[in-house]
From TrEMBL, chain A:
Subunit and partners: The complex is composed of six subunits: RnfA, RnfB, RnfC, RnfD, RnfE and RnfG.
Residue ranges of every copy of the 4Fe-4S ferredoxin-type domain listed in the record: 366-396, 406-435
Organism: Rheinheimera maricola
Phylogenetic placement of the source organism: Bacteria, Pseudomonadati, Pseudomonadota, Gammaproteobacteria, Chromatiales
Enzyme Commission designation: 7.-.-.-
Name assigned to this protein: Ion-translocating oxidoreductase complex subunit C
Superkingdom to which the source organism belongs: Bacteria
From TrEMBL, chain B:
Taxonomic placement: Bacteria, Pseudomonadati, Pseudomonadota, Gammaproteobacteria, Chromatiales
Transmembrane segments: 20-37, 73-89, 210-234, 241-260, 266-287, 299-316, 322-341
Protein name according to UniProt: Ion-translocating oxidoreductase complex subunit D
Chain positions found as FMN phosphoryl threonine: T187
Organism: Rheinheimera maricola
Pfam families for this protein: NQR2_RnfD_RnfE
Family the UniProt entry places it in: Belongs to the NqrB/RnfD family.
Encoding gene (name): rsxD
Record has Transmembrane helix as a keyword: yes
Length: 693, 355
């Protein structure tokens, strides 16, 4: 059994399931040389002409641009720029009917050619000496995207790091009518092969397989002649059968491999490029000629002169048709692309873009419109024709029933919308149209489901948070009540600040040490109270002399006079202290977001405290500043909530939530942290002073 | 100026459903002509009655369902159903038989299930079974081929006997049924089964004049005519080869095996293939797209199932011919067959590998 590579070398070509043989009607255009389209009055250049995102606009209305000058710049890898196809003035940048089946307006630059066709400075690369990165950059900067139809950025496809066994050059052009690639190969085979050389440098494949349909003998001969110096380039004739030019089908034809569902060709070591793309790469690298023109087959029986035209990108379809002697009928259809997969244009100001390979203006007798849809007779001709081995009649049934589960089971997603099924359907059912609608609906449903899930996650997270906040509050109140009761037992209804502070200390001691006996506790509290009273008096004495911020001092001194305020402050301080203690002892298993925020603030304050601060001093530093802390906490909470809403698309674990909140809250709040730190420093200094004295 | 918006593909194959139905009908012609020549002109009258009834019933229901009548009649599907039923029933059966049958086929089996494409059962065969169960006598009164008839019939006789049950010269159908030897003659299949039931061996039965070469007189030629029409359909890619080949293949294999095992009680494979409605069923009825399996593999199973059922019912069942029952039973299994024979989609692993 010879290996796959040996079979390929021996010239074996495989087959794919289904396929159809529509009349090709290519002779109308393929028998004449490529004509050059004269400069039109206006060029409409959509800023995005590929799959991906548009680049950043570089010019403004009124600017004069030179031929080949970039109009946009690629600011990320999914972007490729567009260039001025000729020199002229930018007269407008506004939405314009897009060359897309939806015909949705897209941002389009209107260029008025000045007729001078003046080039910018060109810097051809020396292919032999430049490195791969330079080549890739040049490919991207030249605006090259797949010219076969999809328009995927070429630099992404050839810049992949996965090993590549086969580079397949798609020159099949299986759609009826189209002969643009055929003519390009006939007239520019050498340049194409140079382009393939460049792609080979980037991809280093084992072999290059060039697939051409067997109804293009001249092109095949030209390519063979151009490749004859290159050992591992194989030109392969594939049988003319639609859709042998489909990426997956051509891979199957040339290598007998299937791209596994949900994977890309590169995953099985294959990269495919269109011949037109290879040509554009050669032009970009060797001539510094960005992608500003392409060959378009302009054909159909309403034209006197169907032919291939070299047209600048941005040329309106109407100009192209007129140049070929267009004589429209009533109810004329103008199709961009081929008769199988192309789309009709709503108006003719739509421009030629990088992916436009054909403009077809058929008469009604030439391509009669299908409008006699009757019921499916389950004849299965569609299944026999489907290159993806789907069951189109079942898909039709479930599309009509809007049964998305069944549609997925029958692999609707694998439909390449080639139209083979609709072509053969005797009941003239526009199957592809049903599938497009069904696919759009499934996408919509998935989108809705995702949104609903996100909303649900948010709602649940919020409920959980509220619930925990409530619990926390209840717990806090309970503890406060308990402490207060204890306090009352211990020292009556004394309400001096010193007393309040003592209470904090007591609690702190409690939470840090193992439950001391009541008596010891009371003694300790008394001891602490005395100490604190001394310390506080010292503080007060110093207060007038220190240069600490006035606000803090005011805060410090006011509780002393106002007993009610003092108790409030004390309560808050107690809470703080408790939290600080929790943070210090590492008991943070069930902290909710809010607490976490406050704890973090505290720890920031602690961290900045430079003196030999004990937990006692840290409690001190915060205790006298309850109002600010409360405000800060509230702000932090609000922030955290916002952040949470923005940042948590799916239901996160509570722990993650906390972390996220901590990270996001501590960071954007440097001022508060700084203030806290300042306070802490001041306090620590005072403390130190008082201890020294 | 306005430009027409249409969805791709913009190009279509030219053969429509109406053309397909018409071609299938045309492919029946050799068989029909042969039947008229060999069994008398009854079949022509039956055809006329069936087609008129089919069109009227279809039009009536379409009117009631508010569908465009003329456009739908043009799809030729009612025509085909009528033709198949008319050639399946005995040519001299009373006129009301075909009328009831056709109306039932179109109204109950086809339109009440949702019209073209939605019926589960083959309309012609469902009607055939209904008639066979309800009017067993009339449905089995096949006259012997003209060459074997004791009383020769004129075209006018056909009209008379269909509408009055008596030929113009006053013979009843059962009188007409008797052959030149004076013994009443049924179809070869019928004769064989009665003889075998009476304890005769195959060879003894084979002496009767209804048999010719390896099959029945007249019936052999009829089957050959339908075989030719069927091959034409395959050549024209109107039907897939799978169903007929599977039907005939399984019938052939079963008959061959059983006749090898017991050559006195089982007729040989060629007799089965060229008797009764075998070829008509295999090429024209089992291949009805609407009620048949739609997957490649499924069609083989479906055809094989029909062949097997035909063999079983012919040999062990209570009815002389069996294709109508076999096809209806197989129709019922189609959704199941289709579900389990889905082809492997490109890029997906086969279902067996998934486990
Ligand atoms: S359009 Fe889809 S379902 Fe139809 S033949 Fe092509 S791949 Fe198959
Ligand atoms: S080709 Fe058309 S009529 Fe035939 S099974 Fe497919 S969808 Fe139905």
């Amino acid at each position: 059994m010879p290996s796959l590579f040996q079979q390929i070398q021996a010239g074996k070509v495989w087959d794919f399931h289904g396929g159809i043989h529509p009349p090709t009607r290519k002779q109308q255009s393929s028998q004449k040389p490529i004509a050059v389209m004269p400069l039109p009055d206006r060029l409409y250049i959509p800023l995005r002409q590929h799959i991906g995102v548009a680049g950043v606009l570089l010019v403004r209305t009124g600017d004069r641009v030179l031929k080949g000058q970039p109009l946009t710049a690629a600011d990320n890898s999914m972007a490729v720029p567009v260039h001025a196809p000729t020199s002229g003035i930018v007269v407008n940048i506004a939405p314009h009917t897009s060359p897309h089946p939806s015909a949705m307006p897209e941002l389009t630059l209107t260029l008025e050619p000045d007729g001078q066709d003046e080039w910018r400075i060109r810097e051809p690369l020396n292919f032999a000496t430049c490195d791969n990165l330079t080549l890739l950059n040049r490919i991207q900067e030249s605006g090259i995207a797949g010219m076969g139809g999809a328009g995927f950025p070429t630099h992404l496809k050839v810049g992949m790091t996965q090993p590549v066994d086969y580079l397949i050059i798609n020159a099949v052009e299986c759609e009826p009518y189209i002969s643009a690639d055929d003519l390009l190969m006939q007239e520019a085979a050498t340049t194409i092969v140079k382009g393939i050389d460049i792609l080979c440098r980037l991809l280093a494949p084992k072999a290059v397989l060039i697939g051409i349909e067997d109804d293009k003998p001249i092109a095949t001969a030209a390519m063979m002649a151009a490749c004859n110096q290159r050992e591992h380039y194989y030109v392969r004739s594939v049988p003319s059968k639609y859709p042998s030019g489909g990426e997956k089908q051509l891979i199957q034809l040339l290598t007998n491999k299937e791209v596994p569902n949900g994977r890309r060709p590169v995953d099985i070591g294959i990269v495919m490029q269109n011949v037109g793309t290879a040509f554009a790469v050669a032009q970009a690298v060797l001539d510094d000629h960005p992608l500003i023109s392409r060959i378009v087959t302009v054909t159909g029986d309403t034209l006197n002169q169907p032919q291939n035209m070299l047209a600048l990108l941005g040329t309106p379809v109407s100009a192209l048709l007129d140049a070929c002697g267009f004589q429209p009928e009533a109810q004329q259809r103008v199709i961009m692309g081929g008769p199988m997969m192309g789309f009709t244009l709503p108006d003719l100001s739509v421009p030629v873009v990088k992916t436009t390979n054909c403009i077809l203006a058929p008469t009604a007798t030439e391509l009669p419109a299908a409008n006699n849809e009757i019921e499916c007779i389950r004849c299965s001709s569609c299944a026999d024709a489907c290159p993806a081995s789907l069951l189109p009649q079942q898909l039709l049934w479930y599309s009509k029933a809007k049964d998305s589960t069944k549609l997925q089971e029958y692999n609707l997603a694998d439909c390449i919308e080639c139209g083979a099924c609709a072509y053969v359907c005797p009941s003239e059912i526009p199957l592809v149209q049903y599938y497009r609608v069904a696919k759009a609906e499934i996408r919509e449903q998935q989108h809705e489901a995702l949104k609903a899930e996100q909303a649900k996650a948010r709602f649940e997270a919020r409920n959980a948070r509220l619930e925990q906040e409530k619990q926390q509050r209840a717990e806090r109140n309970q503890q406060l009540a308990a402490t207060r009761k204890q306090q009352q037992q211990a020292s009556g209804a004394d309400s001096t600040v010193a007393d309040a502070l003592a209470r904090i200390k007591a609690k702190q001691a409690q939470s840090l040490s193992t439950e001391p006996s009541d008596k010891m506790q009371v003694q300790a509290q008394r001891e602490l109270k005395k100490q604190q009273a001394r310390a506080y008096q010292q503080d007060k004495a110093d207060a007038s002399q220190t240069i600490a911020p006035a606000a803090d001092n005011a805060d410090n001194s006011s509780p002393a006079v106002n007993s009610k305020a003092a108790s409030v402050a004390a309560a808050l301080a107690r809470a703080k202290a408790k939290k600080a203690a929790q943070a210090n002892t590492g008991i943070s298993t069930d902290i909710i977001t809010d607490t976490a925020v406050e704890v973090t603030e505290n720890s920031v304050a602690l961290a900045v405290t430079t003196s030999p601060a004990t937990p006692v001093t840290s409690a001190d530093t915060i205790a006298p500043d309850p109002r600010k802390a409360a405000v800060a906490a509230a702000l932090a909470r609000a922030k955290a909530r916002q952040q949470q809403q923005v940042q948590t698309p799916t239901e996160p674990a509570q722990a993650n939530n906390n972390n996220a909140a901590i990270n996001t809250v501590t960071e954007p709040d440097p001022r508060k942290a700084a203030i806290a730190a300042a306070i802490a420093r001041a306090k620590a200094k005072k403390q130190a002073d008082s201890e020294n004295s | 100026m306005s430009f027409k918006i249409a969805s791709s593909p913009h190009q279509h194959n030219q053969r429509s459903t109406a053309q397909i139905m018409r071609l299938v009908t045309l492919a029946c012609l050799p068989g029909i002509i042969l039947q008229a020549v060999m069994f008398g002109y009854g079949v022509i009258i039956q055809l006329a009655l069936a087609i008129i009834t089919a069109w009227c019933s279809e039009a009536l229901i379409l009117r009631l369902r508010n569908k465009p009548v003329l456009a739908r009649l043009k799809d030729n599907s009612a025509l085909l159903t009528a033709v198949l039923l008319a050639i399946a029933i005995p040519p001299y059966a009373p006129w009301w038989l075909i009328v009831i049958g056709t109306a039932f086929a179109i109204i109950m089996v086809k339109q009440l299930y949702g019209g073209l494409g939605n019926n589960i059962f083959n309309p012609a065969m469902a009607a055939y079974v209904l008639l066979l169960v309800s009017f067993p006598l009339q449905m089995t009164q096949w006259l012997p081929p003209l060459s074997l008839q004791s009383i020769s019939l004129t075209p006018l006789d056909a009209v008379c006997s269909i509408f009055s049950q008596f030929s113009c010269s006053g013979f009843s159908l059962s009188q007409l049924q008797s052959g030149i030897d004076g013994i009443s003659m049924a179809t070869p299949l019928d004769t064989l089964r009665t003889d075998l039931n009476r304890g005769l061996t195959l060879d003894e039965s084979w002496q009767r004049p209804v048999f010719f070469a390896f099959a029945g007189t007249g019936w052999l030629w009829l089957n050959l005519a339908y075989l030719a029409g069927g091959l034409l359909l395959i050549q024209q890619k109107i039907i897939s080869w799978r169903i007929p080949v599977a039907v005939l293949g399984s019938l052939f294999v079963l008959a061959a095996v059983s006749s090898l095992a017991s050559s006195d009680t089982f007729a040989g494979p060629l007799f089965h293939l060229f008797s009764g409605g075998t070829m008509l069923a295999a090429f024209f009825i089992a291949t009805d797209p609407v009620s048949a399996s739609t997957t490649d593999k499924g069609r083989l199973y479906y055809g094989a199932l029909i062949g097997m059922l035909v063999f079983l019912i012919r040999n062990f069942g209570g009815y002389p011919d069996a294709y109508a029952f076999a096809i209806l039973l197989a129709n019922m299994t189609v959704p199941l067959i289709d579900y389990y024979t889905r082809p492997r989609t490109y890029g997906h692993r086969a279902r067996s590998e998934l486990k």
